[in-house]
Design brief:
Length: about 375
Amino acid sequence: MSVATALSTAGVQGAEDLQLERDTKGRERLAYKRDGWKFTKFEGHRVHYLQAGSKGPPVVLVHGFGASGYHWRYTLPAIAASCRVFAPCLLGFGWSDKPLVEYNGYDIWPRQLASFIKEVVGEPAVLVGNSLGGYGAMATAARYPDLVRGVVLVNAAGKFEDVKAAVVAPLEAALEGPQRDAARAPLREAAGLPSGTSDSDGAAAAAGRGAAAALRAGNSRREVVVAAAEQSLLARMLAPIKVLLGRGAVYGSFLVAKQPARIRQVLNQVYLNKDTLDDDLVDSIAQPANAASAAEVFYRVITGSGTSINQLLASLNGLPVLLLWGESDPWIRPASADRIIGLYPAARKVMIPAGHCPQDDAPELFNEKLMQWLSSLPK
């Protein structure tokens, strides 16, 4: 049940199928529609999107992990008077299909967004991305620069690659045996890099250490090779079990996380202003999670690979970038915004008193700052 108190019969400019409502504070937003709005195709998959506005430069709003185009319910009508606005659901989320494909953040969603811009929007657009959508926006701009006029990062997700790794690697390589083992952790800790190894690295290292010990003990080279091969074979045999155990843990977590009560609890942790947390928002997240393939998609997304933020920013080549950042985000803190500015000094940063999703948490201020920046872009 929506918290809206009044419906607008006029709908949204340029989109007769979108109806407006007012929340408990009188703020205008989209009225929830449980079966979604428009659909198009991407590589044979059905992709959902919302559209509003009949004139002005195009803006594509890209939601975050587990959300949908509806998460822009306050932004879409607010900027539709001066922009053509689109809010697609990324493949695997919302009302879009959830195929069992590889969910590489640098590949699948940038391809989808590029196709969407070419086939639906029809001209280069500004991308506005929240959380995972921010990463997707950066990746799309890096891969398809001719299709993107600017990028707005809203508490954008993604991993940083510390440039100090280039210094630590040769230092580690210069050390041998126990020296390298003893120095590895403090070196990487000083550089701000992870000190652990992956399971496959650990298995290989263990096999190597075992082989070296066997040779020192006087075993024949053939015996050592056989023993190392057996260890390697065991590691390969155990790998699928580790994957299954990992998948099982993720599936179990997903079954808990998709419950409406749990969704509301999580949102309550990452929203500063609780008045926009309502049943419609919760249902827009919970309903798609009941799809048959949703748990496997969840697993593939969180275990998928990607490209570092450093590399993406280095590929933007002076593209206009705005950071609209919720300053009370417990997941992606303001320090991440500062780090992006350090890597891409041409970006502008605006902090907003909000949590992880400022477009829904503090919609009036968010929309004001977004429109100010959009109006400053070259025509």
